[in-house]
Specification:
- This protein is 43% helix and 6% strand.
- With 102 residues, the chain is mostly helical.
- The protein has a two-stranded antiparallel sheet.
- α1 (2-11) runs antiparallel to α2 (17-35) and α1 packs parallel to α3.
- It is elongated and about 55 Å long.
């Protein structure tokens, strides 16, 4: 997802952290505004519509939303030492795997 891309770029972007965090915050804020329901988050029927009402919800939360989108947003705002990129790699589903040294 797009938040994962920001985190991956941010992880290797010396000095550009704030730019990527600002973009990530805009994504998170839009998710809160347009997708948050009383009990979870919903996908949208039409992402081009600036409609925050439930009329634009598809009443379905994809599994990758929690497993990837929110995880990458969490990592984007976490301290760099939480999962150092020289010690971990990530699967396409955002699962961290430790790099074993010989």
């Amino acid at each position: 997802g797009i938040s994962g891309t920001f985190w991956e770029v941010f992880g290797g972007d010396e000095g550009g952290e704030e730019k990527w965090r600002e973009m990530g915050w805009k994504i998170f804020s839009a998710i809160e505004k347009y997708c948050k329901t009383s009990s979870s988050f919903s996908g949208l029927l039409d992402v081009t519509q600036k409609d925050s009402s439930k009329d634009n919800w598809n009443n379905s939360m994809q599994s990758f939303f929690l497993a990837e989108t929110l995880k990458y947003l969490f990592l984007l705002f976490s301290d760099d030492t939480l999962l150092p990129l020289d010690q971990f790699v990530f699967t396409t589903e955002a699962h961290p795997l430790e790099i074993f040294k010989k």
